Amino acid sequence: MKARLAVLAAAALAALLVASPAAAETRAATPIRHFIFLMQGGRTFDNYFATYPGADGPPPGTCQPRSAGRPQEGCVKPFPLGDRQPPPLGASSTTITSQYDRGKMDGFVSAYQKQGRNGVPVMGYYDRRQLPFYWGIADRYVLFDRFFSSARYGIRANRSYWVSAAPPPGGSGAVPAGGYGKRPTIFDQLQHAGISWKFYVQNYDPRQTYQNASLANPQTQTSRVPLVNYARFTRDPALRRHIADLDQYYRDLSNGTLPAVAYIASSSGDNERSARTITAGQHLVRNMVTQLTQSRYWNSSALLVSYDGSGGWFDHVRPPGSGSGAFGFRVPALLVGAHAVRGQVNHTVLSYESALKFIEENWGLSPLTARDASATSLTSAFDFAAGPRPGTVLPPLSAAPAGQLHAPRAPAAPVAAVYGFYGISAAASIALVVLAAGWPWLTRRRLAMADKRAARTGGEHL
Amino acid sequence: MRPPREGATSPVAAAPPSAAAAAAPPRALVAAASPRVSVTAEAGRLLGQQAPLLATLALAAFLRFWQLGAVGFNSDEAVYTGSAAALAGNTTLAPMFPVFRAHPLLFQSMLSIALRLHDTDWTARAFAAVIGIATVAATFALARSLYGRTAGLYAALLLAVMPYHVVVSRQVLLDGLMTLCATVALCCVVRYLESGRMIWLSAGGGMMGAAIITKETSVILLGGLYAFFALTPGRLRIRHLLLASLVMVTLVASWPLMLRIAGHSQTSQSYLLWQLFRRPNHGTWFYFTTLPPWIGPAVLLVALAGLVWLRDEGTWRERLLIAWIAVPVIFFTLWPVKGFQYLLPIGPALAALAGRVFARPLPRPPWLTWPSWARISGRAEGSGRLAALRTLGPRRAAMGLLAVVTVISLAVPAWARIEPSASATFLAGSGGLNGGRAAGLWILRNVQDGARLLAIGPSAANVLEFYGHQPVAALSVSPDPRNRNPAYTPVPNPDLAMRRGDFQYVVWDAYTAARTPYFAGQARRLASKYHGVAVYTSTVTVQAPGGARLVEPAFVIYQVRP
User: Fold this and answer.
1) Nearest chain A Cα to B459, which residue?
2) SS3 sequence, chain A?
3) What residue in B sits closest to A415 (Cα-Cα)?
4) Contact call for A432 and B559, based on CB within 8 A
5) What pTM did the predictor assign?
6) Model confidence pLDDT, tens digit, residues B422-453
């Protein structure tokens, strides 16, 4: 009887453990028990990391023709944007197709020129001065230089791949009247497996869903948050409660309720799609990383930051694949975490599906489509053997951060000179006192010696 | 030509040990004439002779080392030790504690050598305590030169237990070494006045130079010497003065020269301007209201009473000591910026004046004078001289008793001051900052690299930076360069900085809050507005006016986010 009770109790305990979020976390195959994926606006790798040391930036001699097929009109070389703030490039499907130019990758400038627009800014790039936080992240964690967007064009398309490894039903245009239908997402898989998840949305408005969108009221939230294009995620309370405002992310970190998988969509004010929002985006990501660093989850989490397409900017690497398996241009991607390899520039060919692949492998889920099934996981960016390393709060972005009490130092103190000057001064002052105190003794000694000499001289005379 | 020996009629001063030693026959001749004395016996004799001084030094050491590390650093200690550690090659503290700040670097240079051997806050305090003990010995030498050995012993004993000196010399402050150098300098001047030998004045100049390159405020003491020589003409030869001045100026010149070589001349000028024009930090009568309990009312009374009682025997010696005391007291009373420890160099001089009194027998009360005493005792068969001799012993004993009472009146508060006690208020320079070290160590262990903290004021910020090894900014640092220490950078718009995520923590502390309620309130508001969660709290148990013991928060660290 006792044995039976014990078995029952053990079974109940096991059932409890399996059902609880903590148990789901512990089911992770790697030390990563919390995976966070933040998606920002359209940027290419070369636009953000063209000159990052060790990364695959534009080779010397790179120059995009101003007009396709007319070399006499000259070309435009990549150039630093500095503090200039070019207006958003507004890349359409036609523009991106022209830029790609059937794989020749020579239409980045001319695509705009032939529209009567200035294509020169496309070749501009940022560096450490404008992106101190991202470059700082790359210095300390992992920068991927072969991370491709999943679709060549379209925010909706790329964000659909982001959650479902598939293009959106109805293409990258407007959401179909019935939404995205029954297309499975990674969150369905997680929900089914009992693994905790959340979709954090900055400035989340639960009323903005595909049902309310129209040409007059485009509802930008439906572009950046693919889940609000699904009927089940907007109507089923059991699923809908997983979509929360970004504030909840900070509360979850603080309260110890961070889910195993979290996706994050920023708002248009912070998504870096325009030059004006790059600093705001860095502030946002810095805050998120800082809070993660300071939380109890640091040792067991990883945060991936990427971008939902090229935004029309130049990138020199031709995307791999073709047909339905074709990828878009390279996008910046950074991995932050206690287990991320320190200062690695990762050259593995990856895409948004790589993150899905990692989630699926880590929590034992089956793939959603052939794209994530064949994708390469993110594992090459982790070093689990080394164990977790302490987090670092990266410096503020402002040129003169208000975070230090003391004024920035000028040159370092010349230690040898300090010791020399003060040592000589101290020794001299002590020597003078010793000399003064010993003066009578020296006098007596001199007198005694003189006496002795006199005595000796006198003896000889005698 | 030697200066005339004023005051040579004084029975004590007439034969100071140095003079006696000078008059003694050469040691070689004595050794040849007397039977051979065993080394052990000689050592025993010397030990017996020096036992009172050794006991005094041991008492000084006990009071300076007891519970030395029980409470962590205060702001000044953190700054000086941080600078010394930076000199010693501590790369963590170097960015937070610049070597070139407001003061010269003699103390920090010496301390840095100690820190190279053992880099702890206790080592730094022990270094300061050893300097304090050396000052007690220097006070003995000073008072012995002036008034003989007994006076020297009393003066050393008084300084050994004087709360003012005990408390300051237990801290890593420049004032301890400055006081030692100044006391030795004064001693050299006394020896010069007694012997007329130029070397003593040059040594005094050297020591004054050392005092000035320890802390520049000791230049005020030169005013005391000037006042003395102005009031006592004929005791100084121009040639001697010129040489001594040359020695002093040469030593002091190393400071600006060093700054120029290091490219920090501008830094020094900024500090000078700030010191000249900064706002008053205490009332005019701060020293008169604050210091007497720390110096000891008994010491002050005895020194003053001695000046009255022995006024007929007054010589240049008292004039020198009074000038030495009066000038800095007057200067710092008038000067708007006052530091608790600024007047430490007057301690040895006060102790010497009081020691001089204790070395004398108690004056005979009128009712004890001959023949009344003879009538009472009925033993006056001899002369008045015999009776006077008979009364000398009790009068010496009575004076001894008075000395003991005075010493106890100093030792008891000194003991109370060094016992780690909890207090929710704090006077800068009067001890360590309760709870500061614990909060700093919590930061060291729990705050991630690169995180930034915002404290109410720079004092607590310095302590937290020293122990926590993280940059800490301060709300109360003024954006107006005229109203802030040039070493600090302000937070012009704390709200914006918080919004940008420049800070991850806000630190509230009771000590700064008591001094600047406005900024303390602002710190609380920022913590509240930016989702502050208290992640660390330390408390102190304080005694309320009614006697009840209350638990008060000392440090609270809030984790904040935009």
Assistant:
1) A405
2) CHHHHHHHHHHHHHHHHHHCHHHHHHCCCCCCCEEEEEEECCCCHHHHHCCCCCCCCCCCCCCEECCCCCHHHCEECCEECCCCCCCCCCCCHHHHHHHHHHHCCCCCCHHHHCCCCCCHHHHEECCCCCCHHHHHHHHHCEEECCEECCCCCCHHHHHHHHHHCCCCCCCCCCCCCCCCCCCCCHHHHHHHHCCCEEEEECCCCCCCCCCCCCCCCCCCHHHHCHHHHCHHHHHCHHHHCCEEEHHHHHHHHHHCCCCCEEEEECCCCCCCCCHHHHHHHHHHHHHHHHHHHHCCCHHHEEEEEEECCCCCCCCCCCCCCCHHHCCCCECCEEEEECCECCCEEECCCEEHHHHHHHHHHHHCCCCCCHHHHHCCCCHHHECHHHCCCCCECCCCCCCCCCCCCECCCCCCCCHHHHHHHHHHHHHHHHHHHHHHHHHHHHHHHHHHHHHHHHHHHHHHHC
3) B87
4) no
5) 0.80
6) 555 555 556 678 889 999 999 999 998 889 99
